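FAQ: What does the model actually see?

It sees only this:
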Amino acid sequence: MIVKFIDLFAGMGGFRLGFENACKKLNIYPKCVFTSEIKSHALEVYNKNFGEKNVKTDITKISSEEIPAFDVLLGGFPCQAFSCAGKRRDFEDTRGTLFFEIARILRDKRPSAFILENVEALTFHDGGNTFKTILNVLHELNYQVSHKVLNGSDFGLAQSRKRIFIVGTKKESISLDFPKMTDCKVKDILENIVGDPDEFSKAMFSHLSPKELQGKEIRDYRLSTTKVLRGWELGLKGEISDLAKDIMRFLIKEGYKHKRREKVPIDMSLVFTHFRNFPKTMQAVQELEDRRYAKRSVIHSTGEEFLTVCGGNYSYKFSRFLNNEGYSPTLVASDMSRIGVVGDNFIRTLTPVESLRLFGYPDDWDFNELPISKIYDLTGNSLCVPIVEAISKRVLNSIFKDFNKKDTSMCLRNMAIKQTVATKEQLKESTKILVAHLPYDEDMSINVPSEVIAKELGALINSASDKTIRDLVYFLSEEKIEALKKGLSLYN
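And it is asked to produce this:
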């Protein structure tokens, strides 16, 4: 069997990898007929790993007629608000968004199924109106739709990464309830890296042991908790007086009165009212400014002064430290370079291989010599490959569940062998389908003698290049390739 699919917002290829993994395990030949991605460095990696030459493509500028017929649409689209969400919530409400492009293609091409992915926040974006509009549009297009927030840590990954998956077929609603896979922790994906401690590592280990540091995060503007470290208390940018620390605590406490977990400018008059000794207070404020723990700002029209806590995610070399005995937090591109891996005597960044493992990619996924910043951008925006594979199996089973492999295989054999007017290309395509129809045991091994396979395929094509052979043996194990070549040679 062949399944044709398109890969929208393709990134570095995680959606396609998961889908093709599922196809291989179900003896289905996957054929990607269209790819869309606007990041050049993402396409470099995509093309390198899939052996293709796709060019940067803006889906908003591609008409439906330019997209070949296909069976399944894959798409991890960005989260965008709809201008009319909460009103009609129909197809026209989505115009001007990237989801509109997905809906447009589904409407015009009518594929058998789709699998979509987005951030968990999509479900409550704009008070839930955005998500309601999306579901309404998909139902309006006559698809049976199911959706669920799934977590990578439930699919054998060492990362807690919750994403909403939306799945639709023409036939039936697909269950997205899955059993939990074998547990994996951060320690299971780490490479054995040794090194010497830098100044930052020395500073952190002077306050906490490596084990105590794991799972912590540095947030200067947060209330103190067991997981939150505050750089100004540890003196990471320089020691400060007790009065300066009291002022920082006051700023944070006042900021939380605004019911916001972020930096809030506090009127200096409040600071001076609370800390009555003006000269010492001003001296302590100057300490905070000199060490960049806080900064003053002035509203020029009124002359009012404000004091704000600094200490965002980029104030320190690392802002968060992985717990080797637990799961990684959700990784995002902007923060990946500041995720610390805590060793026995030094703190380091994630390696490219570790980044791949946290998302379920193989270790040999080729980044085409991209700089680490680009690698973090691609992995931080990727998805969990095992989740896509699990969903894809169910979607493919639904599409092909009424397909009689034996009868179809026999039909293909007759068509390919007896059709004297068939072109060579038609024979090649038929042979690819035939390979996908060969019977398999549960352990995915072909239960037909390799000599029989070789003879049968050899009868279909009497001259084939090595590349063609590699295409035809997509589902064959390496030990059967030589037999296949031998069989082909009999008919040359």
